[in-house]
Amino acid sequence: MFDQRTVRVLLYVAVGASYAVGCASVVEPPIRAQYAAAHQARHAQQARIDTLLSFQQKPATLDEYLRYAFAHNPRLRAAFARWSAALERVPQARSLDDPVLSFEYFLEQMDTRYQLSVTQMLPVPGGLRLAEGRAASEARAAMHTFEAERFELYERVVRAFNEYHYLSRSTAISEDNHRLLIELEQAIDARYQSGAVSYADLIKVQVEREQLADRLASLRDQRRAQSASLGALLHLPLEGPLPWPIVEPSDAATIDESVLAELLADLNPELKAAEAMIEAAVQREELARRSGWPRFMIGAGYMVMPGRDGRKDASDLGLMTGFTLPIWRGRYRAENEEAAALLRATERDRDEMRNRLRAELSLAVFQFRDAERRSELMTQSLIPKARQALAVARQAYADGQTEFMTLIDAQRTLFEFQLLAERALADREIALADINCCVGVLWSDPGSLPDLSGRVPEQRRDHQETPQ
């Protein structure tokens, strides 16, 4: 119907235009490489952790919980999928519209039998570059959002892990005190039978024991709920409570809030995502400004005309061009105003986020210092003194020099101080995780904490055994 040369010309008009406008990408390869590295690391980590861990059968450390959560948490995997989806919008943004191939057949073939044409609409100058840059900025924002989700998951796992460990220590301390009250009740009962003490002393120790037994039962019931919260972060099936965790010694840390504020401004992934969205909004605004420019069209057509006076049909090959007429200026003004308003909103969101993160960092630093102060107060001063007071009260009661309530008060005070010490230790670890989450410090080992400043190893607890 038409020769091979004509077909080539028609196709080259459309395909050649696509390549001429700029299909090659400069911004995409780096973000593709970052995604590929993260994808490979996640798969390697998941394969390694799946073969090493079985949380339902044996106790695990915080590092093991974190590694497993990073490989399996559904929310984190969803953020990773959104990053992947954002990457796939980059090649879409830099592509031309599909060329239009049309065929026209004339019913009354007086001057023309049929006509074949192909046309390609071209974007405004620099339009594809801006569209690709905008999509690449959104992909970078999705990458930083994934990093922010990872930090948030880190903070949530650390919080759930330490709350679960605090529950284990509270249960162990309550069990120890309950055993002591049982022994004290037996001793008081024996002395009551011999007439050495009054019945009121026996009733008082029984009331104290029953109150502690009720508290202990509540702690044991609470274990399943807190285990479920921790298991949900790891995407584990609910097959009974997890074993009590293994807590490793923690290091001392000297926190410099001014240094942390500088790190927050430079490293926080939420702020980086906001900056990337501002870049995307700037490119969107420039695209909106150019939307009122004419868009050009190029094309080629092949026409077959009936022969005259018995001659063969004649054909002709033509080139065409055209451009749009952007006459509806009100629409383009509204588009420009919309893009400018979205840019302002994105910048204000970034400013609000920076203020919020600074406030959260300041609160986390206060909570960290407050927890360290409370821990030192309990372990270095109040608990030793409470133990001495309990020993003195025991001896004085045995000698008949004090009332029984003095002994009970001394026992109860030591018990409460022990719980407060464990609470302070848990609060310290949670606050330190909050600081890391605010700052956005990356570390090679997901279970370790960044070296913020000078650190001196110190033992976290006088005893490391946990109740089984």
- Give me the Rg, rounded: 37 Å
Largest sheet: 4 strands, antiparallel
Number of strands: 4
Overall domain count: 1
Strand content: 5-15%
Q: Widest sheet: strand order?
A: 1-2-3-4
Residue share in helix? 55-70%
Report the structural category: alpha+beta
Shape: elongated
How far apart, in Å, are the first and last alpha carbons?
A: 87 Å
Low-confidence stretches: 18-23, 442-468
CATH topology: Outer membrane efflux proteins (OEP)
What is the CATH class designation? Mainly Alpha
Helix-strand pattern: HHHHEEHHHHEEHH
For this structure, what is the CATH homologous superfamily? Outer membrane efflux proteins (OEP)
**CATH architecture descriptor name:** Up-down Bundle
Global mean pLDDT = 84
> What is the helix tally?
10
Fold and architecture overview:
It is a single chain. By secondary structure, this protein is α+β, with helices and mostly antiparallel strands. The protein has a single domain, classed as Up-down Bundle (Outer membrane efflux proteins (OEP)), CATH 1.20.1600. The chain has ten helices and four strands. It has helices at residues 4-22, 28-52, 62-72, 74-93, 127-193, 199-234, 257-267, 269-290, 329-398, 404-439, and strands at residues 100-105, 114-121, 296-305, 314-323. Helix 2 (28-52) runs antiparallel to helix 4, helix 5 packs antiparallel against helix 6 and helix 8 runs antiparallel to helix 9. It starts with a helix and ends in a 29-residue tail after the last helix.
Primary descriptors:
elongated, 468 residues, Outer membrane efflux proteins (OEP), alpha+beta
